[in-house]
Each structure stands twice: as structure tokens, then as C-alpha cells.
């Protein structure tokens, strides 16, 4: 008799249904493309499914899944570095935007796409996922100092890309959605 599925399929299906959209949103902020974000999320969830029976702490799944998404994104960028498009050094002058202006979000996402992958990963984890410096360092397996310096450099790149019209930048769930 052939069994269909594994004993943990039900648990994984419940987790998948509850967390696929937030993980995809994180992947989108990392890569800036919904199709690529879907691929990153799918690859990350396949990796999570394979590791599922070995996971001892199901209470820490969100952090583990988020770490898989970030690492999948970074690994993909290492493989695809030759095929990347290079943006010109200057951007056209952006129009003045208000907080409720949809073009404001698009400008922010475009500027975020110009930030190098490691810095973008730090910015997304720190300001979108609202993780602390220590949690971000643990997720990326780097030092606290690296997180701080990468965040500072990433924010400087965003400010440079966005220009003086946007003042201080804050990546937050409210501003990012």
C-alpha cells in the first residue's frame, strides 16, 4: 500500500497557509520583483519542508523561515551577479510626494532596489520586519557591528537615491504597504 504524504504534511500546510504571504512580502522587499519574490519564497518553503521533521522548536519557525528567505535571496544574487542590470548613476528629479501618494511607495521601492543585496537584507529585517540589531545579526549570521554598518550604508544609499524631497526615511509596515 502506497501512502500519500507524510505525517507532518498537515502541520506544514497550516504553517504554509498562515505565513506564505508575509514571507513573500519580505522576499519582495529584498528583490523588488513579485515574480522573483514568489520563486524565492517557494524555494525557501521547499527547504523548510525538507527540514520540517528535524526541527525541534516549532515556536521559532518564523525566524527560521525568514532566515531561509534571506539566505535564498543572497545565494541567488551570488549566482546571478553577471546577469544584473546596472542602473545609471543619476535618477531624474522626483516630483514632490505626500505620504498618501502611491508614487511615494514606488520611489521608495525603486530606491530600495538600488541598495546592494546584503545592505537591503539588513534594512528589510531591521525596518520592515522590525527585528532588533541582535536578531538581525543572528538571522544573517554576522556581527552586530556588521548589521549597524550595513544599515547605515543602506540608509545612506536610500537617502542619496531619494534626494532631499523625502527627508528621513523610515521603512515600516505602515509606510511600506
How would you sum up this structure in a few lines?
The protein is mostly helical.
- The protein's oligomeric status is single chain
Terminal-residue CA separation: 49 Å
Pairing-aware structural class of the strands and helices? mainly alpha
Q: How many separate structural domains?
A: 2
Instruction: State the CATH architecture of the largest domain.
Output: Orthogonal Bundle
* Binned strand content: under 5%
Q: Could you state the CATH homologous superfamily of the largest domain?
A: Winged helix-like DNA-binding domain superfamily/Winged helix DNA-binding domain
Radius of gyration: 18 Å
Q: Could you name the CATH class of the largest domain?
A: Mainly Alpha
Coarse shape? globular
Under CATH, the topology of the largest domain is which? Arc Repressor Mutant, subunit A
Q: How many H/I helices?
A: 8
Keywords: DNA-binding, Sigma factor, Transcription, Transcription regulation
Organism: Amycolatopsis marina
Domain RNA polymerase sigma-70 region: 22-83
Protein name: RNA polymerase sigma-70 factor, sigma-E family
What's the layout of helices and strands?
Blueprint (H helix, E strand, L loop, with lengths): L8 H23 L2 H18 L9 H19 L22 H12 L3 H12 L4 H8 L3 H19 L10 H4 L1
Helix pairs in contact: 1-2, 1-3, 1-5, 2-3, 4-7, 5-7, 6-7
